[in-house]
Design goal:
- The protein has 13 helices and 13 strands.
- By secondary structure, the chain is an alpha/beta fold.
- The chain has 2 domains: about 220 residues, Rossmann fold (3-Layer(aba) Sandwich); about 160 residues, 3-Layer(aba) Sandwich (Rossmann fold).
- The protein has a 7-stranded parallel sheet.
- α1 crosses α13.
């Protein structure tokens, strides 16, 4: 069986998922290919880099000028289709097809015309909206009928023109009528898909997995080197600390906590680090997963104040390393609780609780510190289980 996966990146959260599946397929003897449009180059015939920086920049520029994201990159998409014609895949497994690297009209017309079986893992909501990958923070429900006057026009993918109605109608036309199964990493996103124009497709929930040979209780000298041995440590991790990841909430939290606490944030820019208050230690993004596992392992609490998210793997990485997790009741973020022995563990709060005068978050932190979270089994979080579920799906008739 020949399987081709396509994603915007080969690294980052979605890239790691794609590459994890690819490596497992290769190990089991499948003829597996991965394709990505941004990031590292490759000379491996089974690992294909399909775009270039200039192509990505031009696509991003045209998207801003016209409001039509996903309808450029014609040259690179033509080259991709040539590759697919040569490979003749049995299954094309899509991940993120937004990200300024692929022409969705050309790709999906090819998949339809050749009746290629498609698996599409949705890592956000972009596939069924006219503009945005997330809408929870603005409580928008226009996507259920038709997008217009988009309230997220200034968010990624940022546009100078509101073409959300055109995008919605075009994407609906392109994304329907295929031999396709949709996969969502969270039950939350599966529920939304069933309310969208993708509702006639079979929807499977396959949780993202992690590498439990890396993310497990790990020794770290971080506390010693940063003089935190007598402090209660609260950790936050993000690849990019933008508005929806809740950086401003960590700043608010730093004003509430007394000096027995120290906040550590990973993934900040150098500019963001310069503006931090004294009780927050800022660290730039790290690709060293062992180092990250050590941070998860040494912290008292991992706090994820995400305002919009599908199924953040940072939550399960943290609990696999022995950290207690507190998160907002947004998107699929609370679903990590399914892995805990005590599913009634009091670790989910509303995103406005930090602003309340009674300090709900501060009280919850003290409570969680006194009652350690425990997971059923690391095996339940294992990347291998996720891969096995995808392989079973590929082989399903």
């Amino acid at each position: 069986m020949k399987i081709v996966q396509i994603n915007s990146f080969s690294n980052g959260s979605t890239g790691k998922i794609m590459m994890g599946i690819h490596n497992e397929l290769v190990k089991k003897g499948y003829d597996s290919y991965v394709v990505w449009g941004r990031g590292r180059k490759s000379n491996n015939n089974h690992e294909i880099y399909m775009n270039n920086k200039l192509g990505v920049y031009l696509h991003a520029l045209m998207s801003r000028l016209t409001g039509k994201t996903g309808f450029y990159s014609k040259k690179s998409t033509k080259e991709l289709i040539k590759r697919l014609e040569k490979i003749k895949p049995d299954v094309v497994h899509l991940h993120n097809v937004h990200g300024y690297y692929i022409n969705i009209d050309m790709l999906f017309r090819y998949l339809k015309a050749n009746r290629i079986r498609v698996i599409w893992t949705l890592h956000d909501c972009w596939s069924f909206t006219g503009q945005c990958p997330h809408f929870e923070s603005v409580k928008c429900e226009k996507w259920k009928e038709k997008c217009y006057k988009c309230p997220m026009i200034n968010e990624y993918p940022k546009s100078f023109v509101d073409n959300s109605t055109w995008n919605y109608n075009k994407k609906k036309e392109i994304f329907t009528g295929l031999d396709m199964t949709i996969v969502t990493p969270s039950k939350w996103l599966a529920t939304l898909v069933k309310k969208s124009y993708l509702k006639n497709y079979r929807v499977e929930v396959i949780n993202n997995g992690i590498d439990t040979t890396i993310f497990k209780p790990t020794n770290s000298d971080f506390r010693k080197t940063h003089n935190l041995e007598n402090k209660k440590m609260i950790l936050g991790v993000a690849s990019v600390w933008d508005r929806r990841k809740g950086l401003s909430d960590f700043i608010k939290l730093s004003r509430i906590l007394d000096d027995s606490y120290k906040i550590v944030l990973v993934g900040l820019s150098k500019k963001q680090i310069k503006s931090l208050p004294s009780n927050i230690i800022g660290i730039t993004r790290t690709e060293n997963q062992q180092e990250l596992a050590g941070l998860y392992s040494t912290t008292d609490i991992f706090f994820n104040p995400t305002y919009e998210d599908n199924y953040p793997t940072v939550n399960i990485e943290a609990i696999a390393c022995g950290a207690s997790v507190i998160t907002y009741n947004t998107g699929g973020s609370p679903e990590f609780i399914d892995f805990l022995k005590n599913k009634n563990f009091d670790c989910i709060i509303n995103k406005n609780d930090l602003s309340k005068s009674e300090n709900v978050l501060g009280d919850r932190i003290k409570k969680v510190l006194g009652e350690k979270q425990k997971i059923n089994s690391l095996d339940n979080l294992n990347n291998r289980i996720m891969c096995e579920k995808y392989i079973e799906l590929y082989n399903r008739k």
